[in-house]
């Protein structure tokens, strides 16, 4: 099964193009993250997200709406206006009356010159209108875009951050009793027009649980249960970025530990993870984004004094655009890799309207491409698990391949109901000080009725540690263990070992008090791992809790619990050899990736 007509961009910034700077002419790489036509040995290794493969199947995202939860999106941008959906957009800093009077709800704060440009660039990566001869194209060039302006200074009507966040997550254009749009009203889930939502934001501190957090978690779970796919940036806090924070490990961010969240890292053009890209056992997939040499071409707020391209002499502007200031060439971060994946999710929904986050993760596990095969970094390394799936905490299942993903999506016949096993609390009650060792190891058996056993989709470990040091001055004086000293490793019955979370001892000493995880004397957190995908959960597991303090050992591992989600996909059966013979002359040619152009 495929879409109706192959899509080929005619947009001027999609292909490599020539530009002038200082009297000299140079070649710009075009939208290399979509289809890489600009390989340079050692700098740009030719990787891309293989949108060509999906587009040539005819998938463009037509009829699918992507919600961009961000700081606003310029709905009347010449490369966004044809895809902009006012009906499903909202500005949470405005009252209902102000929103209804706005021709482009959810637009940026037009009063600021260098603020509220982020969402416009994010939206362009997902779904700038392609094939219109203007600017560039998004991954899903005919998808609809909804702007949910949530990253604001203050919310209207006295709403709190969690209330507005939950409303943005749930919004499907629902109305109040008078028939007016109201994101705070209960959604009508009989129809779900906004099938994908992108989240290119997150905290820089780890283990943060805000007041009313249950509103946000509940909204995400409710939304996902009705088929909405939530795509999250892993974060830009990796230790070697020179500005590290605890959320270099994205498993320390609450929303990113939910099994239905699709968490996206960033791949540099050089073929390894981008220097800033956060990692974690919860990572799902990686997509191309910026590095020191290559940025991402996408939409920018229009006008000379707005957004990224305020001054052509700015050294951060990689090159100028012939038509002025409507585009930027230096967007990036996981803020860009996530909406690229969101656009591909829209293609997947078009290919298979039954697509939800579970199905998407099954397909990503099957179709993503292993990159950086020799990775031996402290935060990663490829492991092939007992079911044959490859996983790496730096990359998740690997580099997304839109062509393979959409083809597989169109071939899914059915998906099982998810089975969830929730084990009892396992009491440990061991103190590091009493044990006199920096590692406490516990084994536990997972035993369940054979009738419910299916291949693993995820593992969730809830960890409870008490008696940690919560006074920074005492800690610096040599007393005890703080939360940021802890890490954990989990090994499955099939022998697959995965680091559940990492300590944050790499924070520079001069920044440590501000940045390290230390303020609580208790760690109570659930850690997600995708590393065991497809394995049999039954048998003996081993969990190791590691204390890396340089002080005297302290802290008591009180307990933990184990949760496993399980399920399977069924694909349309492959045709028999006889059927293939009958189809000779009727089967379309194999889709080939667009030929890449050699060096500029």
Q: Shape, please?
A: globular
Query: Structural class of the secondary elements?
Result: alpha/beta
| Strand count | 24
Low-confidence stretches: 578-600
Count of separate DSSP helical elements:
12
In short:
By secondary structure, the chain is an alpha/beta fold.
What does this structure look like?
This protein has 600 residues and is α/β, with parallel strands linked by helices. The protein has twelve helices and 24 strands. The protein has helices at residues 51-55, 96-100, 118-127, 161-170, 213-225, 334-351, 357-367, 402-410, 432-435, 472-476, 512-515, 577-582; strands at 17-21, 24-28, 65-70, 90-91, 144-149, 194-199, 229-233, 261-267, 285-288, 296-299, 327-331, 383-384, 390-391, 412-415, 419-422, 426-431, 439-446, 456-466, 486-491, 497-501, 523-529, 539-547, 556-566, 569-571. Strands 4-5-3-6-7-8-9 form a seven-stranded parallel β-sheet, with helices on both faces. Helix 3 (118-127) runs parallel beside helix 6 (334-351). The longest helix has 18 residues, at 334-351. The radius of gyration is 24 Å and the shape is globular. The chain starts with 16 loop residues before the first strand and ends in an 18-residue tail after the last helix. Residues 578-600 have low confidence and may be disordered.
What's the SSE blueprint?
Elements: E1 17-21, E2 24-28, H1 51-55, E3 65-70, E4 90-91, H2 96-100, H3 118-127, E5 144-149, H4 161-170, E6 194-199, H5 213-225, E7 229-233, E8 261-267, E9 285-288, E10 296-299, E11 327-331, H6 334-351, H7 357-367, E12 383-384, E13 390-391, H8 402-410, E14 412-415, E15 419-422, E16 426-431, H9 432-435, E17 439-446, E18 456-466, H10 472-476, E19 486-491, E20 497-501, H11 512-515, E21 523-529, E22 539-547, E23 556-566, E24 569-571, H12 577-582
Parallel strand pairs: 3-5, 3-6, 4-5, 6-7, 7-8, 8-9
Antiparallel strand pairs: 1-2, 10-11, 12-13, 14-24, 15-23, 16-23, 17-22, 18-21, 18-23, 19-20, 19-22
């Amino acid at each position: 099964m495929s879409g109706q007509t192959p899509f080929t961009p005619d947009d001027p910034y999609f292909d490599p193009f020539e530009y002038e700077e200082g009297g000299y002419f140079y070649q710009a790489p075009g939208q290399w993250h979509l289809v890489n036509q600009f390989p340079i040995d050692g700098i740009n290794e030719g990787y891309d997200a293989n949108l060509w493969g999906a587009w040539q199947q005819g998938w463009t995202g037509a009829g699918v709406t992507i919600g961009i939860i961000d700081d606003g999106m310029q709905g009347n941008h010449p490369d966004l206006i044809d895809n902009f959906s006012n009906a499903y957009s909202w500005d949470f800093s405005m009252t209902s009356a102000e929103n209804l009077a706005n021709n482009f709800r959810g637009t940026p704060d037009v009063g600021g010159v260098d603020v509220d440009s982020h969402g416009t660039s994010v939206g362009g990566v997902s779904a700038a209108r392609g094939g219109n001869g203007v600017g560039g194209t998004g991954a899903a060039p005919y998808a609809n875009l909804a702007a949910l302006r949530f990253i604001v200074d203050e919310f209207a009507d006295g709403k709190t951050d969690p209330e507005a966040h939950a409303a943005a997550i749930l919004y499907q254009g629902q109305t109040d009793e008078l028939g007016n749009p109201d994101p705070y009203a209960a959604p009508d889930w009989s129809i779900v027009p906004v099938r994908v939502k992108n989240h290119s934001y997150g905290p820089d501190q780890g283990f943060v649980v805000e007041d009313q957090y249950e509103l946000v978690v509940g909204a995400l779970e409710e939304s996902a249960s009705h088929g909405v796919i939530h795509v999250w940036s892993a974060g830009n806090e990796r230790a070697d970025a020179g500005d590290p924070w605890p959320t270099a490990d994205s498993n320390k961010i609450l929303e990113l530990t939910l099994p239905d969240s699709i968490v996206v890292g960033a791949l540099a053009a050089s073929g390894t993870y981008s220097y800033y890209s956060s990692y974690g056992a919860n990572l799902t997939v990686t997509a191309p984004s910026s590095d020191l040499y290559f940025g991402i071409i996408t939409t920018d707020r229009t006008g000379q004094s707005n957004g990224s391209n305020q001054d052509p002499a700015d050294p951060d502007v990689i090159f100028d655009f012939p038509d002025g200031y409507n585009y930027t060439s230096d967007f990036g971060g996981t803020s860009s890799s996530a909406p690229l994946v969101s656009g591909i999710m829209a293609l997947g929904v078009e290919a298979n309207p039954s697509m939800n986050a579970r199905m998407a993760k099954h397909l990503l596990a099957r179709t993503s491409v292993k990159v950086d095969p020799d990775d031996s970094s402290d935060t990663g390394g490829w492991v092939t698990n007992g079911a044959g799936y490859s996983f790496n905490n730096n990359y998740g299942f690997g580099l997304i391949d839109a062509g393979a993903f959409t083809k597989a999506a169109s071939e899914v016949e059915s998906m099982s109901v998810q089975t969830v096993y929730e084990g009892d609390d396992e009491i440990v009650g061991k103190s590091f000080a009493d044990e006199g060792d920096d590692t406490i190891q516990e084994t536990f058996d997972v035993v369940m009725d054979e009738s419910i056993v299916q291949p693993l989709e995820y593992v969730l470990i809830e960890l409870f540690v008490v008696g940690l040091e919560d006074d920074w001055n005492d800690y610096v004086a040599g007393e005890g263990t703080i939360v940021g000293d802890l890490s954990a490793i989990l090994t499955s019955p099939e022998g697959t070992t995965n680091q559940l979370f990492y300590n944050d001892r790499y924070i520079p000493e001069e920044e440590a008090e501000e940045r390290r995880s230390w303020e609580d004397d208790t760690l109570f957190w659930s850690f997600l791992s995708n590393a065991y995908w497809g394995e049999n959960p039954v048998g003996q597991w081993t969990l190791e809790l590691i204390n890396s303090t340089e002080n005297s050992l302290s802290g008591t591992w009180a307990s933990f619990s184990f949760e496993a989600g399980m399920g399977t996909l069924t694909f349309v059966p492959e045709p028999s050899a006889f059927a293939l013979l009958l189809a000779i002359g009727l089967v379309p040619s194999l889709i080939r990736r667009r030929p890449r152009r050699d060096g500029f």
